[in-house]
Structure formats: structure tokens, C-alpha cells
Amino acid sequence: MLFPSPTPREFIRTVGASIHPTTHRVRTPHFFSLERGETLKLILSRPYDSFIEVSQSDDVGTLLDEVFQDSPEIATSITTLTCYKNNTALCIADMLSERFGLLEEKTIDVSTCLQEAIMNAILHGNLGVKSKFDSMASFELYQKEIEKCLENDEHRTKRIYISAWDNHKGLKIAVRDEGKGFSLQKSSANQPTLHGRGLMFIKTMADDVWIGSDGRTLFMNFHY
């Protein structure tokens, strides 16, 4: 199903996107576009269970299928560019903290692990950038490579899917990208892979960490 209207804004209106928060949770996908001048933090504070960023070229039916994969209680589908340009991890961690009643220290753990997982998904998953640098000059080249990738429509419009479930023992979170996949077993403290340092850091803060069968989804458990 493609957009039935000429602009994302008009489409958002047709699917009943909220302008003002309400006092109850609405079990309807909230379609949004930051072109409207709103912030990601404001959007995620609204009482919806799923948040889907949309653009003119998106197939909404496909997005819905991807977002509701495995029936999460909370789900987001956000473009690579939006994830990179905003403090996405903190925004989502604050939203999950409010929804699931997390303690402050647990919210910090969730936020920190989300930051590592999202950046891995962006840089090594969707953009395919190799983080090998050993000097300020090579680091600057690395940053330029990232910015160049984000200028490419194919790269910057790829999706990061973040989902959450209350599994009665704690909070389960999944971060999925559209990259080629990776292996948790290949990363070690002594021989970090492209994802190695971030994954090793996540392992120290999350209670359980594993990779989905697709090789592109990182699962994390945080016990209550």
C-alpha cells in the first residue's frame, strides 16, 4: 500500500495522527514525520504503542508488517538519518521507563545499551562503515565517510526497528537493522570486530544478550 496522498503530512492526517497527547493509550500506529517541526522526544511521549516514521516513497503495508513482527508491546520504525541526528536512545529509554515503570538506575542501563546497539545498527548495519581508526586524522575521515553515506537516500532511509516486551521477568528489547547481519560469537575483548566493543559493553550492563536467527536483531533482557 503506497501513499494515497501527495505529501507525508496529508497522509499522516488521514491515518489519524495525534497532535496533542491524550490521557489514555491508543492502540493505533502513530505515523509521524519530523518535517512537521516536532521533536522525537515529543512524538514518543504520546500514548501510542507503535511509532512509524513515514516519507513519500514508503510502502506503509510493508512497514506495518515489519513493526508488528513478533507482536511487541512497544515498537518503533525510525529512519537511519533520524536515529543518527537525534538522541534516539535516551528518548526511547525515557518512554520505556514511563511505560514499564523502570527504576532510575535501570533506565540508565537501558539508555546506555540502546545507545550502543542503535549506533552499531546505524554505522555497521545500515551504513556499512568500518570503524577502524588510530589517529585524529583517520577519525576525521571516518566521520566524513559517515556523513557521505547519510547523504545517500538509499542509506539514510534504511530503517532501525526497536521493539520492547514485558516478559514478566523484566524488559526485553530488540534492535534490528537492515544490514548484512553479524555474529555475537565473533566479538571478544581482545579481538573486537566491527560490532565488538559495543557488544562487549552491552554484555556488561544487560542481563542477557543474544542475536536473532536473522543475524540482524540484537536482543537484550533487563531484569526488574
Fourth-level CATH superfamily of the domain at 69-223: Histidine kinase-like ATPase, C-terminal domain
Query: What portion of the residues fall into strands of 2 or more residues?
Result: 15-25%
**Average pLDDT rating:** 83
Order of adjacent strands in the largest pleated sheet: 1-2-3-4-5-7-6
Largest sheet: 7 strands, mixed
Which second-level CATH architecture of the domain at 69-223 applies? Answer: 2-Layer Sandwich
Tell me the number of helical segments per DSSP (H or I, 4 or more residues long): 9
As for the CATH topology of the domain at 69-223, it is: Heat Shock Protein 90
> What share of residues is helical?
40-55%
Nearest-angstrom radius of gyration? 17 Å
The total count of strands amounts to 7
**How would you spell out the order of helices and strands?**
HEHEHEHHHHHEEHEE
Distance between the termini: 40 Å
Give the CA-based shape: globular
Class inferred from helices and paired strands = alpha/beta
Instruction: Identify the CATH class of the domain at 69-223.
Output: Alpha Beta
- Uncertain residue ranges: 1-7, 11-24, 187-195
